[in-house]
Write a structure and sequence with these properties.
With 147 residues, the chain is an all-alpha fold. It is 73% helix and 0% strand. It is elongated, with a radius of gyration of 17 Å. The two termini are 20 Å apart.
């Protein structure tokens, strides 16, 4: 069989990349539901005791809605598996972008955030961003027949 010369060689890591991105989407749904129901719980590690203030609760619920929508959209795009990589790849990218911006926002406020939990927030957001980027790679490089 002749290899398609227009595509880069497939890697056995691509299914692992897709799995990591899918796990990040499931976690995003869980965080979104938690933030909608109890906005101070996921916000407290990020902003400390101010998570109990009304303004933080409103913002926490709004971010929870964002995470729930991104997570459910990603999972639906994966499950539907239409021809081509665009639906899932675009949602993986949107999640990776939002997580990357969460890291940047955290770093910008670093000195004013809780000293221990800011590492947890930055690390988990960075990990989710990397998983999302890996999902983008998998969506665009993986052969649909191999899924």
């Amino acid at each position: 069989m002749q290899q398609d010369t227009d595509r880069p060689p497939r890697s056995s890591a691509l299914p692992l990349f897709r799995y990591a991105a899918n796990a990040a989407a499931v976690a995003r749904v869980a965080v979104g539901v938690a933030a909608l129901a109890w906005p101070s719980v996921p916000a407290r590690p990020w902003v400390g005791t101010s998570a109990d203030e009304l303004t933080a609760e409103v913002l926490g619920r709004a971010l929870g809605a964002r995470d729930l929508a991104l997570g459910l959209g990603t999972l639906a795009a994966i499950r539907k598996a239409p021809a081509g990589p665009w639906p899932a790849g675009a949602l993986y990218a949107a999640g990776a972008l939002s997580d990357t911006l969460d890291v940047a926002i955290t770093v910008a406020a670093w000195p004013r955030l809780p000293k221990i939990t800011r590492w947890l927030v930055a690390g988990s957001a960075a990990g989710a961003a990397i998983a999302g980027a890996a999902g983008v790679l998998a969506a665009f490089l993986e052969d649909p027949a191999e899924k």
